[in-house]
């Protein structure tokens, strides 16, 4: 058990946020296809405290959707996400990366989102070097940080599970993410901590203490399935897997974090196939009991 | 580049070892099905310095195959492997684990293998705790260490990539492996460092220095493919992927390691389908040029 007194969610889930990827809204053709309005109404009805949206849902309606979220009594906890900044999945030129990055910052600002999630992208082609790739990432993030600050948006650097190191994120540990924050040293820059990506890391508590509460912009919930069938689209609902959810939250809250806990479950074969209303109900129940 | 003067393999590959998994010999029905004698002759012909075998190839012929390997001028660099010690893939009882573990130690001893690789197994069912699982692992390893010492075999604890944390290995970082060695503190206990499992870890050099040369029993080569299709059976040949092979070897040799470099490539869709003679030739060429 963690050595910090955890917030008690057993009878209060106002700290619960929905990341709409939990309903499949991060990918074309997945999920039940609810409109933002349907999502807002369903979350408000169930007492969620916030929603994090994906760019593909927002289109040209950022201000409208942000206002509607707040009018329903919730906050916009975040926007997913920046483009990949480097590596095989990034736009082909640095200018292309920056244009899309700045566009995502503007959308987050229009939404009134607390932060924009950054997935930094994989190892830079032909470098064979995760270190050199991280250096390249840092130059891009440093260029975007003042733009984000001017827009009133925090950049949430998200270290991803090392399984994604090759193509989706050369930033794979909280330690490296804290080091990058320290090196860039800009107030717009913070971290997003996701159970899926950090559940295995026994240094999590120490690294987050090093980061400090001011540097944690988000905490994401799901579970790691012992026998995962797909490392991108087979995340588990909280309680289904092997992650020590209370210990991980202890690390996050032990560093001083008091913000939302955002459920983000990519699950093409299971949760995305269910009725979104059922999924939202189960998230509430699991949040109150096992998180 | 690493800050250590690397051994020069460009015209001398006597430090090269073959792990027979590179020919598919770790799984039924994979590879060309060469006999141990064919493997020995082909490796000796090409100047390999050692071979690491899998238990399923050895059957009742451990002494014979060990002697034949040495008669061909090579060493037996290792035996793969212990049973999983805990988690969903381990034998169902502790006694079942120990019986199979001790059997594998005896086989390694009969082979004259330098070490027995240990894959510790995933998170213990219903614990939801990687920490508690590691503690359970440590009690089993501590019980086996004196048995291994009496048999003249070193136990090579292999931290696996965090993607295997749920089912194959709750030991996922070199840091945790060094901590476990320190805690058990037995001379029969050491580490195996595999590029596939550690390529993403920017703390590798520091952790291996903490371990010390005497604690490194093996170094395994392959590459991490940026767009890997299968996290178990789609490893790359050295040079095909994103791992910084010289930097990683710098970390291993910087800690004082002077032993074999063992090629271990699980590749159901590519390398296992090729003529083993071609695979062995390419391993030599890549070892001399990119490792």
Descriptive tags:
homodimer, 291 residues, alpha/beta, TIM Barrel, eight-stranded parallel β-barrel, 8 strands
Would you mind describing this structure in some detail?
The structure is a homodimer of 291-residue chains. Chain A has 291 residues and is of the alpha/beta class. Chain A has ten helices and eight strands. The first copy, chain A, has helices spanning 36-46, 55-58, 62-71, 94-111, 130-151, 174-184, 195-198, 204-211, 245-254, 276-289; strands at 16-19, 50-54, 75-80, 115-118, 154-157, 189-194, 216-221, 261-263. An eight-stranded parallel beta barrel of chain A has the order 1-2-3-4-5-6-7-8, surrounded by six helices. The model of chain A has no long low-confidence stretch (mean pLDDT 97). Chain A binds chain B through residues 87-88, 122-123, 125, 128-131, 134, 161-163, 165-167, 172-173, 175-176, 199-203, 224-228, 231, 241-245, 247, and chain B through 87-88, 122-123, 125, 128-131, 134, 161-163, 165-167, 172-173, 175-176, 199-203, 224-228, 231, 241-245, 247.
């Amino acid at each position: 058990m963690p050595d910090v007194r955890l917030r008690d969610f057993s009878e209060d889930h106002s700290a619960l946020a929905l990341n709409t990827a939990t309903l499949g809204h991060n990918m074309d053709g997945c999920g039940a296809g609810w409109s933002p309005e349907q999502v807002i109404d369903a979350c408000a009805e169930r007492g969620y405290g916030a929603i994090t949206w994906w760019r593909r849902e927002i289109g040209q309606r950022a201000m409208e959707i942000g206002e509607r979220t707040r009018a329903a009594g919730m906050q916009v906890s975040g926007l997913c996400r920046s483009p990949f900044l480097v590596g095989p999945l990034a736009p082909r030129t640095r200018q292309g990366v920056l244009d899309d990055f700045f566009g995502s910052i503007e959308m987050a600002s229009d939404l009134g989102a607390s932060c924009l999630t950054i997935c930094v992208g994989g190892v830079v082609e032909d470098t064979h070097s995760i270190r050199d790739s991280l250096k390249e990432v840092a130059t891009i993030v440093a260029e975007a940080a003042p733009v984000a600050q001017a827009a009133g948006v925090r950049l949430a650097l998200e270290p991803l599970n090392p399984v994604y190191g090759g193509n989706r994120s050369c930033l794979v540990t909280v330690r490296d993410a804290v080091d990058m924050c320290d090196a860039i040293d800009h107030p717009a820059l913070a971290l997003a901590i996701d159970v899926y990506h950090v559940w295995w890391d026994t240094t999590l508590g120490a690294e987050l203490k090093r980061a400090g509460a001011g540097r944690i912009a988000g905490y994401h919930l799901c579970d790691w399935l012992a026998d995962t069938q797909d490392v991108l689209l087979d995340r588990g609902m909280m309680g289904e897997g092997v992650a020590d959810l209370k210990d991980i939250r202890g690390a996050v809250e032990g560093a001083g974090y008091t913000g939302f806990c955002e459920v983000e479950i990519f699950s093409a074969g299971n949760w995305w196939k269910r009725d979104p209303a059922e999924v939202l109900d189960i998230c509430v129940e699991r949040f109150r009991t096992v998180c």
